[in-house]
Amino acid sequence: METTLNTSTQNGWKIATGLAVFTVLYNIGEGLVSLYFGAHDEALTLAGFGVDSFIEVISGLGILAMITRLRRYGSAERGRSEKLALQITGSCFYVLVVGLLLGAGISIWKSQQPETTVAGIIVSVLSIVIMRLLASWKIRTGKQLRSASIIADGKCTMVCVYMSVVLLVSSVLYALVHLPFIDAAGMLGLAWFSFKEGQESFEKAKDNATCCDHC
Q1: Which end of the chain is more exposed for a tag (fewer CB within 10 A), N or C?
Q2: Tens of pLDDT along 178-198?
Q3: In terms of DSSP H, where are the helices of 41-117?
Q4: Which residue range(s) make up the domain with 13?
Q5: Does residue 214 belong to any structural domain of this protein?
Q6: Which residues touch 73 (CB under 8 Å, ≥6 apart)?
Q7: What is the pLDDT of residues 122-142, one digit of tens each?
Q8: What is the number of domains present in the chain?
Q9: H/E element holding 140?
Q10: Is there a domain that residue 140 lies in?
Q11: Contact assessment for residue 185 and residue 105, using Cβ atoms and an 8 Å cutoff
């Protein structure tokens, strides 16, 4: 019985590690595609979404390090390197917020309009589906391992779904009505979620929380 339990736990940790690795690799691909088409089509919301994906890569690497530590040492006190990673991630999110706000302001001032938002629609739909499934899998694995950290990480992944919904709504609305301020509104939506992510990163670093408390 104990051997079976240990095997199940080991498999659970392998799955958790695999999910963390997939999260990092997916965000790298998503970021590259979003930045390319965001620049090519002058779709600022898509470009901002791409930058966010690369910040999520930094966060994902921190989660991967956390999982590795949990597998080896259990729920020991958070290491200095992990706190530093959280602080760097939080700072990156705050920088992104400033960039998104400036971009939205410039977009409104110049009445900038994307050439097309088709790429944004495709990227956001894929992200919604994949991140939603990924979040559910992480939460299920966390419950199997009785790990609050893994469960919280799964709930954090849902924030990516919310940001993808913002991108999808702004892209679809622009494709339908072509109002110049819709892209700027999408950037403001991303700025809000980026601010919340940055805030939570610093709170986790300060309080040794496991993940997004607001999720």
Answers
A1: N
A2: 877 888 888 898 889 889 888
A3: 44-73, 80-110
A4: 2-206
A5: no
A6: none
A7: 999 999 999 999 999 988 988
A8: 1
A9: helix 118-145
A10: yes
A11: no
